[in-house]
Amino acid sequence: IMQDTKKFFENLSGAGKSIGVLTSGGDAQGMNAAVRAVVRMGIYVGAKVYFIHEGYQGMVDGGDNIKEASWESVSSMLQVGGTVIGSARCKDFRTHEGRLRAALNLVQRGITNLCVIGGDGSLTGANLFREEWSGLLDELVQSGQISEEAAQTHSALHIVGMVGSIDNDFCGTDMTIGTDSALHRIIEVVDAIMTTAQSHQRTFVLEVMGRHCGYLALVSALACGADWVLIPEMPPKDGWEEQMCHKLSENRADKKRLNIIIVAEGAIDQNNKPITTELIKDLVVRCLGFDTRVTILGHVQRGGTPSAFDRILASRMGVEAVLALLEASPGTPACVVSLCGNQAVRLPLMECVQMTQEVQKAMDEKRFEEAVKLRGRSFENNLNTYKLLSHHKIDAELPRSSFNVAVLNVGAPAAGMNAAVRSAVRVGITEGHTLFAVNDGFEGFSKGQVMQRKLTDHYDFFWYSFRTLPAKHIDKIAEQMRIHNINALLVIGGFEAYLGLLELQAARSKHAELCVPMVMVPATVSNNIPGSDLSIGADTALNAITDTCDRIKQSASGTKRRVFIIETMGGYCGYLATVGGLAAGADAAYIYEEPFDIRDLQSNVEHLTEKMKTSIQRGLVLRNENCSENYTTDFIYQLYSEEGKGVFDCRKNVLGHMQQGGAPSPFDRNFGTKIAAKAMQWISKKLKEFYRKGRVFANTEDSACLLGMRRRALVFQPVIQLKDETDFVHRIPKEQWWLRLRPLMKILAKYKTSYDVSDSGQLEHIVRLRAKDISAI
């Protein structure tokens, strides 16, 4: 791969090429991270990169609006929300004359590669510009504004788009840049409102943004357990007013002191009439007499610093966009770079735009089910999970199965565990099972700390989990399984949970009670579980690291020439240090998986010494807690202090347990909710499958699984088959996807490195559902 990569970089040199980068349309957090990545990757491959200020308006006006970018000019913009190079809605670009002026401005600077960061309108405009390009050049030649030779040299315009929009309304991409940050703002507000609502027993009606797309409303409702949500893609059925009021009063009767109703700004009823927050408020007051308040979140959702997820998404996409531009030939269609699951993909821009427009058309024509399908699998999965969790039936009407399911947390705490437990319990009860919660992990299980749960239970402070493994308590655990007649187990936790499941499976030969379906959901800040690219809690920990690094970098702005050494958690897994480094703009990240020696430390010090000669006079170095036995945080701090004498001074910081605490991020709440719901549905399926002669008996490999996210999908994998993929000594998977992100971090920190592009996105087509497929679903 290393040889292929070197060959690849020679083939794809950017020498002699010029790239223009612009942000257009509504701003979104993370746009700056995308601009930074495009500029630095462009310069890295030898191209010239130009900022086009104020979006298309700057392209039309030319002059100082189009400026060459330098490496230092994008420093310090990673943590800034909005867009530093400005954005504007541009009427001129919609006219032929405007586009002609824009073409002249680009040709005069030799720019034939455009990276456009914006919404569907901005990207559609870019594609039209590309289609007209040769005609525009002909006009410029005829009017004598450019030479025939210049027209020949600049005959093809290449366009790559990145979707920057908080609405997440663009088909073909799971997440658009800015969506996750907007969810952070919404959840922060909802969490704050919940405390005041609880004090006064109030109902709050919250309006969130999203234009004609209900994604923000839907996901925030899922993440905060809202009582009701109204979105354009799923207008409520006739009689919804009574249903909603019934649900609200039912919740109050269950001792719940508050109600939260989330309304998307584009919410409509079956007749395409808008449903406003005031309408909802009047309805609740009239029917129930509840003290009701309205909060419209507005532009708060667009503001603030970008989340770790958005910074990483934008950085990955920015690098991918430059690669796509370098690979483009005159016949290549304009494409969009995006993420599908955890995989980078390239999609033809116009296919995505047409599909996005089809969603609106389907909604206008009241074909709402089709609109949901067209929105894509991410939206559909969220909607299905919401429907599953918002069961409006009272207990007496729920189906009854004779199965008992136990849920337990194992290992260190991870933010989002409570969301997973709540989701699992609700789905389990809705499917008719009796749900038991086990306190204190496997140790509590052996002591019989087992309690039944109800649909109305709250999980703000859930039961403790212990690191104890089951092997030494196996007889007692089997006895408790028999006493409570437990027919299935859902284990939520980290590496101990994985080891525990392996031990339980191994003990099946001795204890028939353990021959039941078992599934594990990964939850650990370290993200070190084999079989899953991500685990619950890792995103919250990344945000804690990123926030702290931002503050630390800011503290250095008053003092010149300072380098910070920061120690992160993760055991032997370097995920937090690497991905945190990418999100915080670190100069280096030391991890166990990539061995380093004194020469590497020396070259890092020299690299920082060179950096101090530029206008960026601060450094950030992350170190995973177990990256090396001898090169400790103190050692690295002392080495840097000694070697940097007279050039820079050093400070060190051990982040510690703050990485395990805090309110869970929207991503972790949503991921925990979806993955636990899916795990419980798997349990239901397996219980039916293994029910024979009046009892459940499961002794196959595939009846003890780990549910993990692998690239694009959530997959169930027998734990026994994951053994070969595991380094048990260091408690990490043998292969880890995020190691492919390390070269990005190095490139963006100006290190020469080989970048394996075998994993970069290939041009794909949107999988379209035919009408008959839609009706069959």
UniProtKB/TrEMBL annotation:
<dbReference type="GO" id="GO:0030388">
    <property type="term" value="P:fructose 1,6-bisphosphate metabolic process"/>
</dbReference>
<dbReference type="GO" id="GO:0003872">
    <property type="term" value="F:6-phosphofructokinase activity"/>
</dbReference>
<keyword id="KW-0479">Metal-binding</keyword>
<keyword id="KW-0418">Kinase</keyword>
<keyword id="KW-0021">Allosteric enzyme</keyword>
<dbReference type="GO" id="GO:0042802">
    <property type="term" value="F:identical protein binding"/>
</dbReference>
<dbReference type="InterPro" id="IPR041914">
    <property type="entry name" value="PFK_vert-type"/>
</dbReference>
<feature type="active site" description="Proton acceptor">
    <location>
        <position position="167"/>
    </location>
</feature>
<dbReference type="GO" id="GO:0005524">
    <property type="term" value="F:ATP binding"/>
</dbReference>
<comment type="similarity">
    <text>Belongs to the phosphofructokinase type A (PFKA) family. ATP-dependent PFK group I subfamily. Eukaryotic two domain clade 'E' sub-subfamily.</text>
</comment>
<comment type="subunit">
    <text>Homo- and heterotetramers.</text>
</comment>
<feature type="binding site">
    <location>
        <begin position="89"/>
        <end position="90"/>
    </location>
    <ligand>
        <name>ATP</name>
    </ligand>
</feature>
<feature type="binding site">
    <location>
        <position position="26"/>
    </location>
    <ligand>
        <name>ATP</name>
    </ligand>
</feature>
<feature type="binding site" description="in other chain">
    <location>
        <position position="467"/>
    </location>
    <ligand>
        <name>beta-D-fructose 2,6-bisphosphate</name>
    </ligand>
</feature>
<dbReference type="Pfam" id="PF00365">
    <property type="entry name" value="PFK"/>
</dbReference>
<keyword id="KW-0808">Transferase</keyword>
<feature type="domain" description="Phosphofructokinase">
    <location>
        <begin position="19"/>
        <end position="324"/>
    </location>
</feature>
<dbReference type="GO" id="GO:0070095">
    <property type="term" value="F:fructose-6-phosphate binding"/>
</dbReference>
<dbReference type="InterPro" id="IPR000023">
    <property type="entry name" value="Phosphofructokinase_dom"/>
</dbReference>
<dbReference type="GO" id="GO:0006002">
    <property type="term" value="P:fructose 6-phosphate metabolic process"/>
</dbReference>
<dbReference type="InterPro" id="IPR035966">
    <property type="entry name" value="PKF_sf"/>
</dbReference>
<dbReference type="GO" id="GO:0061621">
    <property type="term" value="P:canonical glycolysis"/>
</dbReference>
<feature type="binding site" description="in other chain">
    <location>
        <position position="265"/>
    </location>
    <ligand>
        <name>substrate</name>
    </ligand>
</feature>
<feature type="binding site" description="in other chain">
    <location>
        <begin position="209"/>
        <end position="211"/>
    </location>
    <ligand>
        <name>substrate</name>
    </ligand>
</feature>
<feature type="binding site" description="in other chain">
    <location>
        <begin position="299"/>
        <end position="302"/>
    </location>
    <ligand>
        <name>substrate</name>
    </ligand>
</feature>
<feature type="binding site" description="in other chain">
    <location>
        <begin position="524"/>
        <end position="528"/>
    </location>
    <ligand>
        <name>beta-D-fructose 2,6-bisphosphate</name>
    </ligand>
</feature>
<feature type="binding site">
    <location>
        <position position="651"/>
    </location>
    <ligand>
        <name>beta-D-fructose 2,6-bisphosphate</name>
    </ligand>
</feature>
<keyword id="KW-0324">Glycolysis</keyword>
<feature type="binding site">
    <location>
        <position position="120"/>
    </location>
    <ligand>
        <name>Mg(2+)</name>
    </ligand>
</feature>
<feature type="domain" description="Phosphofructokinase">
    <location>
        <begin position="404"/>
        <end position="683"/>
    </location>
</feature>
<dbReference type="GO" id="GO:0046872">
    <property type="term" value="F:metal ion binding"/>
</dbReference>
<dbReference type="GO" id="GO:0048029">
    <property type="term" value="F:monosaccharide binding"/>
</dbReference>
<dbReference type="InterPro" id="IPR009161">
    <property type="entry name" value="6-Pfructokinase_euk"/>
</dbReference>
<dbReference type="GO" id="GO:0005945">
    <property type="term" value="C:6-phosphofructokinase complex"/>
</dbReference>
<comment type="function">
    <text>Catalyzes the phosphorylation of D-fructose 6-phosphate to fructose 1,6-bisphosphate by ATP, the first committing step of glycolysis.</text>
</comment>
<protein>
    <recommendedName>
        <fullName>ATP-dependent 6-phosphofructokinase</fullName>
        <ecNumber>2.7.1.11</ecNumber>
    </recommendedName>
</protein>
<feature type="binding site">
    <location>
        <position position="293"/>
    </location>
    <ligand>
        <name>substrate</name>
    </ligand>
</feature>
<feature type="binding site">
    <location>
        <position position="202"/>
    </location>
    <ligand>
        <name>substrate</name>
    </ligand>
</feature>
<dbReference type="InterPro" id="IPR022953">
    <property type="entry name" value="ATP_PFK"/>
</dbReference>
<feature type="binding site" description="in other chain">
    <location>
        <begin position="569"/>
        <end position="571"/>
    </location>
    <ligand>
        <name>beta-D-fructose 2,6-bisphosphate</name>
    </ligand>
</feature>
<feature type="binding site" description="in other chain">
    <location>
        <position position="625"/>
    </location>
    <ligand>
        <name>beta-D-fructose 2,6-bisphosphate</name>
    </ligand>
</feature>
<keyword id="KW-0963">Cytoplasm</keyword>
